[in-house]
Amino acid sequence: MNQLSLQNPLFATYVIAASLMILKVVGMSWLTVYRMVRENAGFRAPEDIKKTPLNPNPNPTQLQPNERVDRIRRIQQNDLENIPFFLAAGFFYVLTEPSLLVARVLLFGYVLTRFLHFAAYLSARTHDLRATLWTPGSLIIIYMAVHSLFVALGFWT
Amino acid sequence: MNQLSLQNPLFATYVIAASLMILKVVGMSWLTVYRMVRENAGFRAPEDIKKTPLNPNPNPTQLQPNERVDRIRRIQQNDLENIPFFLAAGFFYVLTEPSLLVARVLLFGYVLTRFLHFAAYLSARTHDLRATLWTPGSLIIIYMAVHSLFVALGFWT
Amino acid sequence: MNQLSLQNPLFATYVIAASLMILKVVGMSWLTVYRMVRENAGFRAPEDIKKTPLNPNPNPTQLQPNERVDRIRRIQQNDLENIPFFLAAGFFYVLTEPSLLVARVLLFGYVLTRFLHFAAYLSARTHDLRATLWTPGSLIIIYMAVHSLFVALGFWT
Questions:
Q1: I want to staple C42 with a disulfide (CB 3.0 to 4.6 A). Which of A67, B56, C66, C99 is the partner?
Q2: Interface contacts (A, B; CB < 8 Å)
Q3: Residue A157, pLDDT above cutoff 80
Q4: At what angle do helices B67-95 and B100-122 cross, to 10 degrees?
Q5: For domain A9-153, is the CATH number 3.30.1330.10?
Q6: C89 touching B, CB under 8 A?
């Protein structure tokens, strides 16, 4: 069967996991916007305190750091450090034709732990819990990348 | 026809849009370099104020924030929050075999609004205009990811 | 031969280079963790100075910038500005069916210069050396993206 067909269960599994992760990261942008509007603060560009229809009463304090906005930015930064590499490593991994069961555990396990990591970060749980929820996802990326590397190297020689 | 052939108009459309966006982001690095050289400032690592052939008269003020350099860094950060997810979502989207016309509107529409967003950010237009130009691109990513997710889920069941 | 088969030497070359780069970026997260533990500092979220099993003696200074930790974060930020676009541009490039020799020079050349850039940044060499080691990789991304763009445009007309 065509490797990149969505009728291929391996590839469909990957596309489901990857699409959910894309929506998660893009959601962070919208959550940042939502919190900036609610807080009326957390802006970053000097021109953002010009008087406009969306900012009728500008104030220099709007440019100061705002913890509620910055929390979402830190979550998004963590996403940027992880999710693009999940997208690429997961793609290579499914091209190595692994077992469907293992692929589902790894790909959906990644999605699950990323959503739990988000919940823990958003609600300001301890660093210990956040680290515990970040670790499996990072190990899944490493496993998929190392597996793909060795399969590709195996055909090399 | 081979899905990933550049002779496939859907895939060629995607590669054109994606390549332009890659060049756009990488261009931000070069624009940062250009502005750092012009301003002789905006450096970030402590070792960047060592005396070298390219920095013959180092000065601790070179490490202070420089708005002209930081503006490009903010633009690039916005790219990092968006473009990698456009690249992935657009790839999945064309694999779902959408209509060529719709794909062209979405993919080239994304490219167009990102270049307009860049122009508005570079020239320090209002937050309102910048937000207006950011929004369609973000919605296009969301649409393509949701569409791919549902197509993949449809084959799942 | 199937373009995305790991038995295809072009695609295998790409997967090897891409997997190494994914492991490199993810390694920066682990190096950040390692340095945060060693320095017992460089944390960023307010809740990170709660008393926990992993942080038995919390202290507000743990939230202050720590140069040894921030150096790794700067290196990772540089990765985020480059490697996702290498992954995408390299993928498009191998789909254009370039010569295997040229592809190996570009893809492995990228990997080599990124590791040298990392070594120079980690050991705080001069900005001049770091820039010299960053430049070839950026030019390789630009070359691969421009090449893919023109091949796709060629089939367009």
A1: C66
A2: 95
A3: no
A4: 170
A5: no
A6: yes
Residue B29: alpha-carbon gap to chain centroid: 11
Alpha carbon of A84: minimum distance to chain C alpha carbons (Å): 7
A3 band by pLDDT with thresholds 50, 70 and 90: confident
User: CB of C65 within 8 Å of any CB in chain A?
Assistant: no
Q: How many Cβ atoms from other residues are within 10 Å of residue A64's Cβ? A: 10
Q: What angle do CA A29, B42, A74 make, to 5 degrees?
A: 25
Task: Note whether B122 and B28 are within 8 A (CB).
Answer: no
**What is the chain A residue with the closest CA to C4?**
A95
User: Shortest Cα distance from C44 to chain A (angstroms)?
Assistant: 8
CB-based contact C119:B56 (threshold 8 Å)? no
The tokens describing B107, both together, are 């993919």
Pick from A84, A130, A155: which is nearest to C7 by CB? A155
Confidence category of residue C2, pLDDT binned at 50, 70, 90: confident
Give the C-alpha separation, A81 to C25, whole Å.
8
Residue B73, class by beta-carbon neighbours within 10 Å (0-12 exposed, 13-18 middle, 19+ buried)? buried
Kindly report the number of other CB atoms within 10 A of residue B60's CB atom: 8
Walking along chain B (157 residues) 10 residues at a time, the average pLDDT comes out as: 87 98 98 97 96 94 96 98 98 97 98 98 97 98 98 81
Which tokens belong to C155? Answer: 């089939």
Residue A90 C-alpha, separation from nearest chain C C-alpha, in angstroms: 11
B76 contact A CB<8A:
no
Partners of A26 on chain B (C-beta within 8 Å) are 82, 85, 138, 141-142, 145
Can you give the residue ranges of every domain in chain B?
9-153
Q: Which residues in chain B are contacts of C89 at CB distance < 8 A? A: 19, 22
The Cα–Cα gap between B30 and B2 comes to 36
Is C81 an interface residue toward B (CB < 8 Å)?
A: yes
Question: Would you place residue C156 in the very low, low, confident or very high pLDDT band (cuts 50, 70, 90)?
Answer: low
Nearest to A74 by CA among A120, A39, A112, A41: A120
